[in-house]
Amino acid sequence: MSTVDLRAYRDNPDVQLFPGDERDTLILSMGPQHPSTHGVLRVMLRLDGETVVTAEPEIGYLHTGIEKQAENLFWQQAVTVVDRADYLAPLSNSLCYVLAAEQLLGIENIPARARVLRVMFTELTRIASHLVWLGTHCLDLGAQSIFFYAFEMRERILSIMEFVTGARMHQSWFRIGGLAIDVPVGFLDKMDDFIERFPERLADMRAIVERNVIIVDRLVGVGKVSQEEAIAWGLTGPPLRATGIPYDIRRVHPYSDYESYDFDVPTQTAGDCYARFLVRLAELYQSWRIIKQARDRFPGGPVTIDDRKIVPPAKTEIQHSMEALIHHFKLVSSGFNVPEGHVYQAVESPRGEMGMYVTSAGGNKPWRVRWRPPSFYHTQALKRLAPGNLIADVVAIIGSLDPVFGDVDR
Amino acid sequence: MPESVKPHPERAALVPVVEALANAAGAALLEVVAENDMDEIALRPEGLLAVIDVARRSGFNLLLDIGGTDHHPLQPRFEISYHLTMIPVGNAVGKLEAPRIRLRVFCHGEDPTVPSLTHLWPSADWPEREIFDLFGIRFAGHPDLRRLLNPDDFVGYPLRKDFPLRGLERRFVPGGRAGAVPPVKES
User: Which residues contact B57 (CB under 8 A, 6 or more apart)?
Assistant: First the structure.
């Protein structure tokens, strides 16, 4: 493994960065403000002509210490910071954390309505996230118009989110023990409208990009990775499924009743950028199928468990009941304790396997929330994927891995 | 094999593997527990490479994650958790089972060192650098153990429990070297 020692280079520009290598190579720093890096990433490229010889990604520009902050908040409060890591799929983050905390607490009786809404909204999040990927990835490749199609559709999803949760981006809507609030009146009309419009819009988008000669030429055969290498580099999600392995946490380790939904796990076998492109396009449709099934079963009833030690009572009740007021006061001022233990919970985020290894020391704050960020491993794999390709293809490879740097750096 | 191993109905097939892993750890084995989410083996760092070797030969080919936990003020202070899973390679995959297993490596607070896995999995590079950056745990045999998320001249290990939440006061010093770092008073 060759690494660029930047400190030595800074102190003495004449230092030989790659001793023993006589090729006439050029070091190029791509980023941190390169438009294709989807956040902030710097890749130190070593070029032989236009061909990449080595690539060394540098991360940490968005490091905000979310894991440390979560350790210093009550269990329920930590949902708000956990939300902010993967900012394109905030509800996947919260779902993972909330499921882990519920496992530690031994809560199994989440009401059916809350389960269905959790599935519905994580799938909406997946569609929204994939649409951002589709728009920006094609923008990186030089296609402008698809961006507007994708963002117009994403805007519809964000307005549903805003209508239901009050926030467009960081909803913090999933809570330990259920949901923060029930859906408002008129929600189902909006969902039906979305479910009806989406397939047609998706067909439009696919017609623009799927066999577009420019996109095919830019992506086929670029950034190819075999199954063995994908596993060795820790790739999950669409990059792994693009090599032909149907590894999807929703199927392999189901959570939130995913085993009862009928959907396919799209795979491709080529393992290149185009295969990853096709896998994500196919996933858009599968997520729509899951949303449609969730809409069809949409049960009534409460959205939180009936446990006053976890979920605060309704405001109307607090005005009449002393006991409810005490419960409210206790939950707001000191939260609740979670039994000692540790658990690994994984969900299929739009990017891949997002896991959380949560440790509780028995207190009212998480002792440790360790993330398994899928983008982290995908960005690391640039070291393997970029060499041998042209410098212009690095942009396509980064886009096809769909890293979100809030997720990488946390 | 310790008495604490309870065979889990869905994980019955994994029991001999867990047993083999526990035997490989030898004297470094601390305990074997069947947790609700997966089987786990707790051990001291010197047994890690032997256990990983058996795990790889048993088919655990995907290193899902390496994470660190600081149990300060308890001893052993640091826990490094390895999550492994197995994914069959080839196109004739039927139903993918992908069972998981967890290794918890415990090491003491003074000069914590754990063997590196970078020679087995290239994906171990960054997580090990991240743990070095945030916890100050060294990985013996890592080819390029530098800070990953924080700047190179950062002082301290932020995810240790004795590191203040609000950080250390840092002064800008021309030339890029950090000055003295008195801790910020908690308000």
Answer: none
**Do the Cβ atoms of A245 and B96 come within 8 Å?**
yes
Hey, of B89, B128, B137, B177, which one would you mutate to test binding to chain A, going by the most A CBs within 10 A of its CB? Answer: B89
Query: Is A383's CB within 8 Å of B122's CB?
Result: yes
A245/B89 Cβ within 8 A:
yes
Secondary structure of residue A174 in the 3-state scheme? strand
How close is the nearest chain A Cα to the Cα of B67, in Å?
Answer: 6
pLDDT higher for B183 or B19? B19
SS3 category, A25: coil
Backbone angles phi, psi at B65, to 5 degrees: -165, 150
Calculate what percentage of chain A has a pLDDT beyond 70: 93
- Per the CB < 8 A criterion, the answer to whether A350 and A241 are in contact is no
Burial of A105-126, coded b for 16+ CB within 10 Å and e otherwise, reads bebeebbbbbbbbbbbbbbbbb
Mean pLDDT of A312-331: 89
Half-sphere exposure of A207 (CA within 13 A, CB side): 7
Q: How far apart (Å, rounded) are the C-alpha atoms in residues A50 and A58?
A: 21
Q: Is B167 exposed, middle or buried (0-12, 13-18, 19+ CB in 10 A)?
A: middle
Q: Does the CB of A250 have a partner CB in chain B at under 8 Å?
A: no
0.95 surpassed by complex ipTM: no
What residues does A45 pair with on adjacent strands?
A: A28, A55
Of A231, A346, A355, which has the smallest distance from its Cβ to B87's Cβ? A231
- Taking CA–CA distances from B125, the nearest residue in chain A reads A380
Q: What is the pLDDT of residues A217-245, one digit of tens each?
A: 888 888 889 888 899 999 999 999 999 88
Domains of chain A: 66-106+110-304+339-374+392-409 (1.10.645.10)
Predicted local distance difference test score (pLDDT) of residue A233: 92
Please state, for a pLDDT cut of 90, what percent of chain B lies above it.
18
Element (H or E) spanning A69, and its range?
A: helix A66-71
pLDDT of residue A2: 46
CATH superfamily ID and name for B9-115:
NADH:ubiquinone oxidoreductase Nqo5 subunit (3.30.460.80)
Q: Which DSSP symbol is given to A390?
A: B
Average pLDDT of chain A is 87
Residues A29-62 pLDDT 10s = 887 777 666 668 888 888 888 888 888 898 888 8
Interface test with A, best of B126, B135, B187 (most A CBs within 10 A): B126
In SS3 terms, A375-387 reads as HHHHHHCHHHHCC
Residues A115-162 have pLDDT tens digits of 999 999 999 999 999 999 999 888 888 888 888 999 989 999 999 999
Instruction: Please tell me the distance from the alpha carbon of residue B138 to that of residue B124, in angstroms, as a whole number.
Output: 13
Looking at residue A195, its pLDDT comes to 92
Residue A9 has pLDDT above 90, yes or no: no
The Cα–Cα gap between B125 and A233 comes to 10
**DSSP of B147-168:** -SSS-TT--S-TTSTTS-TT-B
- Other Cβ atoms within 10 Å of A158 Cβ, number: 17
Domain segments of chain B: what residues? Answer: 9-115, 151-187
